[in-house]
Every structure is written in C-alpha cells, then in structure tokens.
Q: What sequence folds into this?
C-alpha cells in the first residue's frame, strides 16, 4: 500500500507545486515598492518549487516502493508546498486591486505599516524550512540507492487465486452474442474479422474471452488457435512476436531472427489456415507490431481485450469486419449469485449486508470475488461489520491476501494514465470529492478542475479544451463511465466506477488530499466532503450514513481554521456546518445537493474572498446582499435554486465566466449611459444560461458588450417592441462576433413564445458562426436564420406551431450538420435524399406525428437513430440496412412488444448488429418541452437485443428470418455456464477479474 500512497502523494504534490508556481508568477507580475523587503525570497521559492514539481513528475514514472526516508521527505515537501500555497493565497488577497493606493488601503485594513512588508516574516520562515528540508535530504541520502523495483512494478501481478471452483456468473448472454459473431454465416465471403472486448480492469474481459475460446463449437470451427497474454510482453516487440509464434507452433521460433523475420514466419504459418487468436490485455504498440502478420483472405477471427476504448476501435477496424463489445457490470441479482457461489455456505448477517456490498462493488466481478474470499474466514458479517469494513478498505487491501489481485488491478488502472501532464492523475483523484455513485455533470466537473487550478492555461477558452481532453481520456480508459442516455457525441453526466472510487478515496485520504468533514484531522486536507444522504440497506432507509457528519463531531464551531480549498455537501448537514468563514481559503463551495441550507446561512459568504465556484441548491431563494465582494468568483450555478431575480451587481464581478440559472435582472430601467458601471472593463462572461426576458431590456443591452460569450440560453416572453428590439440586437451581436471558432462550441438556445417568435424573422439577414442552435416554440422564420449560420453541427427544434414543409426541406443546406433533433415536428411528405446532410451522424425524432422517409443510400454516415415515440410501428419508411455504420437504435420503452421484436430482428439482420436501447420519457428538458429520456429497464422480448458496438468496415450479410434467428440463438446456448475453463486450461488472470 505504500506504493499506492506514494504514487498518489506524488500526483497531488506535483499539482500543488505547479499551482504555487503559478501563484508566484502572478505575484511577481504585481511587483511594487512594498515588496522590496522580500522579493528575493519570492524568487527563491519560485525556483525551488519549479524543481520540486519537476522532481515529482519524474518520480511518478518510477516503479516500485520508495524508501522509507524518501516517503517521509516527499510528505515533508507536500506539507511545505501546501503551506506556501496558503501563504501566497493570503498575500494575493491583499495585492489584488487598482494600483498601490488600493494596496496601501488593504494593508492598513489589517494593521500593517507601509514600511513593513506584509507576510515578509512568514515567507522567510518558509524559505528556511525549504533549506532545512534540502539539508535533511542530503544528510539521509534521500536520492541515493533505490530498492529493487522489479518485484513490485505495475506490470507484475500477485500470485493467482484459484477460481476453478467458481462458475462464471452473468456470462451467458454476452457469450451468446459474441458466439454469433464468431460463427460462420453461409454465403459470407472469406474475410478476417476482429472482435474487441473493452472494459474497466477486472470487469471480466478475460473470462468472457476464455469462455468463447474454450467453447466446443468454436474449437470445431477454428482448428488453429492461440491464446497470448500480451500483458507479459510490454515494450518488447521481439519477445511478443516470439511468444505468439511459440503459442502457434511450439519450437518454430527462428534463432537470432529479427522482428521482420518473426512477422514473416507468423504469416507463412497462418496461410491457408482458419484460425482464432486471442490477445489478452493488448496495448497499441503491440497491435501495431502484429496486425500486418494476419492473412486476410480467410474466415478467421481475432479477439483482443483492452481497457482503452480508442484502441478497441483501432483493432476492430482492421480487416473487413470488426466489432467492439463493451463489458457491462453485473446486475444486483448476478452480483449476489457470485457472492453465494464463492461462499458456498450460509453466513449469518450477510443477507442484511449484501445490498451494501453489491452497491459498493458496483457490479465489478473481481471486487465481488475478492470480498467473498475475504468473507470465507468470517463466522458472521453484520451490517455494522460491513460498514466498518468499507471504512477501512485501504487497510484490508494492504494486509489481506484476498484483495491482492483487486489491489493490483485498480493500481494498474491508475498507473496506466500518462505521467504528463501530472494533472491527469490529480483530476482523477479529485472525482472522489463527489459521493460514490453520485451523477457528475461534465461541465461542473471541468469548471471545478479549472477553479482548483488543476487545469490551467493563460487563455480561459483553451483551458476548457484541455479539461475536456482530460475527461475524454478518463472516459476512453473506462475509468470514468458515462451514465446518461445517448444524445450526441458529448457525455453530459458521468461517474467513477464504484470500486475505483472507493480505492482512490482511501488513497486520497492517505495523501491528505480528500477527507470527510467528520474527520478530526480535517484541517490538514485540501478537499472536504460531507455525505449526509440516507442509506438504503437491507430494504430499510437509515439516516445513519457511515460518513454522515453530525454536529457533535463534524461542525465547524470554535476557533478552528480549515485549509480546505473545496467543500462539497450532499444531503442534510446539521446546523453547525454552515460557518463557512472557517474555510477562508475555499475556492469551490458546492451546496447543490445540500438539503438544509437556508438563505441566511449565505449572508457571510462574501468573506470567502478566494471563492471561484459556487453551486447552490433547491432550498435557496435569494443571493446574499454582499455578493459583489466575491472578487474571484468564476462560476455561479443557480440551476437548482428558487432564485428568480439576479442582483445586477453579479454582472459586475470581474472574473465571472459562467452564470447558470433561470432568472430576471433585478434593476429596472437600465440606461445605456449606465452600462459602464455594470460591466468590468473586459467582461469574462462565457456562459449566460440563462435569463428570462421581460419589459426590462437590461440583460439584452448588456449582451452587446459581452465579447467572450460562447453559450447563451434565453426564455423569451411576449414583450413590447422595445425589449424585443434590444433582444434581437443582443442575439445578432452574439452570433456575429468574431471568435476563435476552433476552441470549444458556440451555442444559442431560445425558448420562444407566440409574439417573441418574431425574433427569428428579425435575424433573417444575420450571418455568423454557431456550432449549436436549440429552438423551442413558435419557429416562424426559422429557415433563413438557421441556414445563414456557418459551421452549424447541432440543431434541435421543438415546435409549438405547424412548420411549413419548405421550413424543414430548406434545412438540407446545412451540410456540416452532425446532430439533428426534431421534437413534435410533422415530417409527412418529406424525404431525405442521398445528397442531404452528408455529415449527419445522429438523427433524433421525438414525438413526431409523422416520420420522414429516408431514401436508400442517404445518411450513409449515420451511427445513431433515435425514434422516440410510444406509437412507433415497425420500420416506418426506414431501411436500416442501408445505414452501413449504424451503431445504435434508441426507441421509446412504451412501444408495443411486436414492434420491439421487429426492430430487434432488423438489428440482428444488419451487418453491424446495432444495439437497441429503450428510453423512458420522464420529465421536461431544460428548454421546457417534454422530451427528456432516461434509460429504461424492460422485460426481455423473445429475441435478445445485441449490445455490440461496431467498427466501420462492413461485409454484406444476407438477412435471416425470425425462425432462423430463434434457431441460431438456441444453438448458441449449447456452451452455457457449464463450459467454464478449468484451472489447468484457463489463462492466468493477472490483470482481469474472474
């Protein structure tokens, strides 16, 4: 466990030191006469911390445990960096302002004379502590000889556990689906096919691949087979090729052969053979080395397993036909079956605590297997035992043999992240400030990263792009999982895998990065979390959350000062928690899910001078009167509040970038001559989402002067002519602004009432750039405005009036469109032709009375077809086989059973076997129309739907009838759970679960 703690500590320290250096640079830019007394000390600290940051990044790439002395030294540097960062935060508090006069005023406010540089003594003490720390490193030879890391490197696995006595659970359906892909289809031309099995470490990829590999039907179809553990040959192409050839033809490896000779030998051996090759846990370098060796004019199959989504896509696009299979977590039923299969006996108390175990393991097979093995030595396991177990998870992982494999898999998932930028690991750790299982909004997470300076760029728009890439990297590696139904290319909500969240939370606590507000040592941590939500366990609702902070031990009363930079509260907090002044260095305060926060609790929040991110929840109905003093605020999220009126002073905040809610402007009769008073010299506002128009033209008038806007959302009421004119001018200015269109999206959302729909007509002659346009309401004049926008890639229309046929037909001119969503729009008589929407990837039709017809050969690039209406029949004028890249079909969960069967058979007959998803309409969306859908569970129809996500190259496959399909499914179940691999035959489960 020391390895994990040091790795996490290194990531945290690297991020902190970079933050401190950024602080110093900012401070040095504000040089004035007052700082002459210690400017040299500031320079010294800057140079030192730059070296510390570089040293920490280097250490992250090292394998194995650091020495005990080095661990202590690393922790000392960590504490020093935190103290320096806190000191500089306080200094910068007094340097912010307009020139020396303002600075003098601030210094006098804290009782310091102009001749005495504030904080000079504290900075000198920090300088001396740095020197002393360096001297200790020399005295104790901290950077001297290192222990041999060969035995504990990230690629080394612990001894295997015996899994032969446990039958795989929940494997029948995915095995059957993949077996269909491996079996020969009559009339199919000879071609190579690759199946990629992708998922989080320990999710059972190897087990599924092995079940296929050992299936008697597969053995009969593929006389030549080989299983290669790619993870055993990292970074050594020749060794990897040699091992592969040895598996194919023992003793055939040429002596002294180079890489090219080995590749030729493999190709020659596989010629004229029908083969099945499995590469378990492959990496991109290995695939690049091996892919050219496979003869393609054969009905052979290759299976690869990987944790990386992009690599799975690369592999499956090799050859003529490829598929990506995404591993799914075990459901509650199968999770409990796995626990019972390992235990094979009654354990008193387990029935009551099993729900908590299942929730924490989150359907992760290896986590469930490890917990079950741990329970084998227990005589009972009550709910209380279960809670104590999860609270001390890190100790169990470091001591208990049952958790060695799970510990190694989770550590590998963390260590596999690129070492540079170091912030990638820190951003992952930061996800643990949200409670386990809590949905995380993509935009909120990225804005919090920016507020914490874990993602930084001098250009705020570029910083958002960097944050977006980091999140995509974590999703691509299946560490962060999307949880919202498919809408467009961007995942809107996500969360960490449950067991990975628990693992990283405990490691973050050991590195003094994140802890719960109830922790007596909380003053030493950077991020505080409180989860006061009730827990459902054993069918009962309990108010005793095991991380709940009660006033007796979790409040912020007394003289205690906390050094936390973020505080996140969910559920009930208790009356003593809301003295926020105790956290004077807070940058992030997230109270969106706090259930007992009151308006008067916010009255002193202006004292949090460093606060950059503020999220408020449903119990708040007004903003504090002194909010104008929150100089550093960048994000104000009021979307869940009852706030209806926005104080105009909020617009004055100089660093405000994201303003979120549904509000009106408080001040009436704002005149043009007053505009200069209500906007900073250069407004940083990027997101204004959104405001409600009324007879006060204030916000539309201010919009004209907001030059950084990238996202605008407006609810337009029926206003007088003057307000509509100001609003039209504001929108026109936003659309026509010249911004760098390569950075992020530019989005406009309008909710129009009857007369406000004239706004679109007033914008007919506007020519500008938007990447996303969402319109709801009276859409007269739509065509001219929409088609005048350059580069529009996303268009969502929800109509309350009857659109003319030409209004829809003219949208064909949007040649860059990738996502088209139409809600309650009649499409009768409209046909999509071959040349229409050449780049369209996703088509979503919601509650449309009549549907369009799609000509054969049109929308060839379509990957997602969403037809969301409970009245949908069978294939209405849409031949899905003509969409050769189709990956998914989304349907309303309320369509009748016959229609479900027809659609699923059609998906089975499609060459790419698109998955069929069922979504349930639950609520209004953010624009106010009833079109929000979530994933829906349903009883399985007579034919199972595929969950295969495919590659891009597709063969022609003859359609099969329902009877043939049913017969094929029955045959595919022959090799069911009884075909689990025996201990002697199974591959070593070094990196995967059971």
A:
């Amino acid at each position: 466990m020391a390895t994990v703690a040091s790795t996490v500590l290194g990531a945290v320290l690297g991020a902190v030191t970079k933050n401190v250096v950024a602080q110093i640079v900012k401070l040095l830019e504000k040089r004035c006469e007052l700082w002459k007394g210690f400017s040299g000390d500031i320079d010294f600290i800057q140079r030192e911390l730059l070296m510390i940051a570089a040293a920490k990044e280097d250490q992250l790439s090292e394998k194995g445990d650091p020495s005990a002395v080095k661990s202590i030294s690393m922790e000392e540097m960590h504490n020093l960096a935190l103290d320096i960062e806190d000191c500089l935060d306080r200094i910068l508090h007094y340097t912010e302002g307009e020139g020396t006069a303002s600075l003098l005023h601030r210094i006098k406010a804290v009782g310091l004379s102009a001749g005495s540089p504030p904080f000079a003594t504290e900075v000198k003490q920090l300088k001396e502590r740095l020197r002393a720390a360096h001297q200790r490193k020399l005295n104790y030879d901290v950077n001297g000889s290192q222990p041999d890391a060969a035995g504990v490197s990230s690629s080394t696995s612990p001894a295997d556990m015996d899994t032969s006595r446990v039958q795989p659970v929940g494997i029948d359906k995915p095995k059957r689906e993949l077996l269909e892909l491996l079996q020969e289809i009559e009339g199919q031309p000879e071609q190579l096919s690759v199946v990629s099995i992708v998922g989080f470490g320990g999710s059972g990829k190897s087990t599924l691949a092995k079940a296929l590999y050992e299936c008697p039907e597969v053995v009969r179809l593929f006389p030549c087979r080989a299983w290669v553990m790619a993870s055993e040959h990292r970074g050594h192409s020749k060794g990897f090729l040699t091992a592969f050839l040895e598996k194919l033809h023992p003793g055939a490896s040429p002596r002294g052969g180079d890489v090219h000779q080995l590749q030729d030998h493999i190709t020659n051996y596989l010629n004229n053979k029908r083969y099945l090759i499995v590469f378990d846990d492959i990496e991109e370098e290995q695939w690049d080395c091996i892919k050219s060796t496979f003869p393609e004019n054969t009905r052979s199959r290759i299976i690869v397993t990987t944790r990386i989504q992009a690599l799975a896509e690369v592999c499956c696009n090799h050859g003529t036909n490829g598929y990506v299979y995404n591993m799914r977590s075990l459901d509650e039923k199968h999770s409990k079956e796995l626990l019972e299969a390992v235990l094979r006996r009654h354990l008193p108390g387990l029935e009551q605590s099993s729900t908590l175990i299942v929730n924490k393991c989150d359907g992760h097979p290896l986590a469930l297997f490890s917990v079950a093995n741990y329970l084998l030595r227990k005589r009972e396991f009550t709910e209380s035992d279960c809670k104590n177990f999860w609270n001390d998870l890190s100790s169990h992982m470091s001591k208990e043999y049952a958790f060695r494999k799970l510990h190694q898999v989770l550590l590998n998932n963390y260590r596999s992240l690129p070492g540079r930028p170091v912030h990638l690991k820190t951003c992952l750790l930061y996800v643990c400030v949200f409670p386990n299982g809590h949905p995380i909004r993509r935009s909120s997470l990225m804005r919090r990263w920016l507020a914490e300076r874990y993602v930084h760029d001098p250009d705020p728009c570029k910083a958002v792009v960097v944050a977006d890439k980091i999140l995509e990297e974590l999703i691509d590696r299946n560490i962060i999982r999307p949880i919202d139904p498919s809408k467009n290319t961007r995942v809107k909500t996500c969360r960490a895998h449950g067991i990975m969240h628990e693992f990283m939370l405990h490691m973050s606590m050991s590195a003094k990065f994140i802890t719960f507000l109830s922790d007596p040592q909380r003053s030493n941590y950077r991020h505080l979390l409180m989860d006061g939500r009730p827990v459902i366990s054993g069918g009962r609702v309990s108010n005793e959350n095991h991380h709940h902070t009660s006033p007796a031990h979790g409040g912020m009363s007394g003289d205690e000062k906390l050094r936390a930079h973020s505080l996140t509260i969910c559920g009930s907090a208790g009356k003593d928690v809301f003295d926020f002044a105790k956290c004077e260095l807070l940058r992030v305060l997230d109270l969106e899910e706090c259930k007992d926060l009151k308006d008067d609790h916010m009255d002193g929040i202006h004292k949090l001078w460093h606060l950059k991110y503020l999220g408020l929840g449903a119990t708040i109905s007004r903003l504090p009167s002194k909010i104008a003093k929150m100089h550093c605020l960048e994000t104000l999220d009021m979307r869940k509040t009852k706030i209806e009126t926005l104080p105009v002073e909020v617009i004055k905040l100089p660093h405000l970038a994201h303003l979120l809610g549904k509000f009106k402007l408080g001040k009436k009769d704002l005149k043009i001559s007053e505009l200069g008073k209500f906007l900073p010299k250069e407004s940083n506002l990027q997101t204004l989402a959104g405001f409600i128009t009324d007879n006060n033209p204030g916000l539309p008038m201010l919009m004209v002067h907001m030059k950084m806007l990238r996202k605008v959302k407006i609810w337009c009421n029926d206003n007088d002519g003057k307000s509509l004119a100001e609003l039209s001018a504001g929108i026109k200015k936003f659309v026509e602004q010249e911004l760098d269109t390569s950075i992020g999206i530019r989005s406009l959302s309008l909710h129009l009432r009857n007369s406000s729909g004239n706004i679109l007509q007033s914008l007919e002659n506007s020519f500008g750039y938007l990447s996303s346009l969402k319109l709801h309401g009276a859409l007269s004049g739509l065509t001219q405005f929409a088609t005048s926008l350059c580069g529009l890639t996303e268009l969502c229309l929800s109509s309350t009036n009857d659109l003319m046929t030409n209004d829809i037909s003219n949208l064909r001119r949007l040649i860059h469109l990738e996502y088209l969503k139409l809600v309650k729009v009649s499409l009768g008589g409209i046909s999509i032709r071959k040349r229409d929407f050449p780049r369209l990837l996703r088509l979503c039709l919601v509650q449309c009375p009549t549907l369009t017809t799609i000509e054969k050969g049109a929308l060839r690039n379509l990957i997602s077809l969403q037809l969301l209406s409970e009245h949908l029949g069978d294939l209405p004028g849409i031949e899905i086989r003509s969409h050769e890249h189709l990956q998914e079909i989304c349907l309303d969960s309320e369509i009748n059973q016959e229609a479900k069967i027809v659609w699923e058979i059609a998906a089975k007959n499609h060459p790419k076997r698109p998955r069929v998803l069922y979504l349930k309409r639950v609520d209004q969306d953010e624009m106010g129309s009833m079109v929000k859908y979530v994933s829906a569970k349903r009883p399985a129809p007579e034919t199972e739907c595929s969950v295969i996500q495919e590659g891009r190259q597709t063969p022609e496959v003859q359609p099969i009838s329902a009877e043939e399909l049913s017969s094929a499914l029955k045959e595919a179940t022959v090799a069911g759970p009884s075909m689990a691999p025996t201990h002697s035959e199974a591959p070593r489960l070094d990196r995967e679960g059971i």
Q: What stands out?
A: The longest strand covers residues 915-923. Residues 68-95 form the longest helix (28 residues). The radius of gyration is 30 Å. The chain is about 35% helix and 15% strand.
